[in-house]
Amino acid sequence: MQALRRFLILFLLPGLLLVSPVQAANDSFSTEELLAGFEKTVFGLEYRSWSWRPYLVKKFTTPVRFYVHNLSSRDRRKTVYRFIRDIGKQVGGLTTGVADTPSRANFEIYVVDRAQYEAVVRKDVYKSERAKVPGRCLVRVVSGRNGIKRSTAVIVSDEGEFLFKRCLVEETLQGLGPMNDDASLTHSVFNDSSRHSRFTVFDQIILNMLYDPRIKPGMSQQQTRPILPLVARDARRRVR
User: Fold this and answer.
1) 19-47 pLDDT, tens digit each
2) DSSP string, 111-166
3) Whether the Cβ atoms of residue 167 and residue 196 lie closer than 8 Å to each other
4) Which of 57, 89, 161, 189 is most exposed, with minimal Cβ within 10 Å?
């Protein structure tokens, strides 16, 4: 059945800059900027060749349970767990936690050294030894009309703090639903030419808009537009 079809989505992080700027304040953005940011990130995919019906809302509708596989020479779990907790605190309507086994997780994060990257992506993400592995880090999302079923991110640990933090933030957040990048989003990590390596205030508002209960999985851009200004107003109030 078409309603039960799943689509697989691959996101890659190409070129990056090396400076993390000071965060903008809650009132630094107009409502129009937030509405445009929501539409640019939520509707569409950074890489469309693996998509199915990309221009629909995609989000988790159940608690997101993460499992962290730290395969790198440096143990990054404390940093990843802290970010997972922060997401749960900063995004209303989204519950995050840590699963004790991969089988109980619906979002797995692999932290790897560069030398491990290709093998992990082929084995644990694509499940194919012959798969091509582009990008510096990535996330894959399995979703359908009723919401995201599962996400898997691969984060590189040993090529500097900026790349690690940038990959962790962008790939994890994209695995929650805002799946497109846009070069015009200067306040956002969803812009591969931006200098951000943190969960910016702008992106916190976008995630709060997406996880507002009035925004449903499978909604089209046209369906969200009548309610989006109110959703943006309420999301801005939640983010301080």
Assistant:
1) 333 455 666 789 999 999 999 999 876 55
2) EE-HHHHHHHIIIIII--TT----SSSEEEEEEETTEEEEEEEEEE-SS-HHHHHH
3) no
4) 89
Q: Using an 8 Å Cβ cutoff, are 75 and 85 in contact?
A: no
Long-range contacts, 124-129 (Cβ 8 Å, 24+): 124/69, 124/152, 124/154, 125/152, 125/154
**3-state secondary structure (DSSP) of residue 5:** coil
Residue 39 tokens, joined: 């539409």
pLDDT tens digit string along 216-236?
999 999 999 999 999 999 999
Give pTM, 2 decimals. 0.86
CATH classification code of 2-13+30-234: 3.40.390.10
pLDDT in tens, 118-138: 999 999 998 899 888 878 899
- How far apart are the C-alpha atoms of 33 and 51, rounded to whole Å? 26
State how far the Cα of 175 lies from the Cα of 148, in Å rounded to an integer: 9
| Euclidean distance between CA atoms 20 and 196, whole angstroms | 5
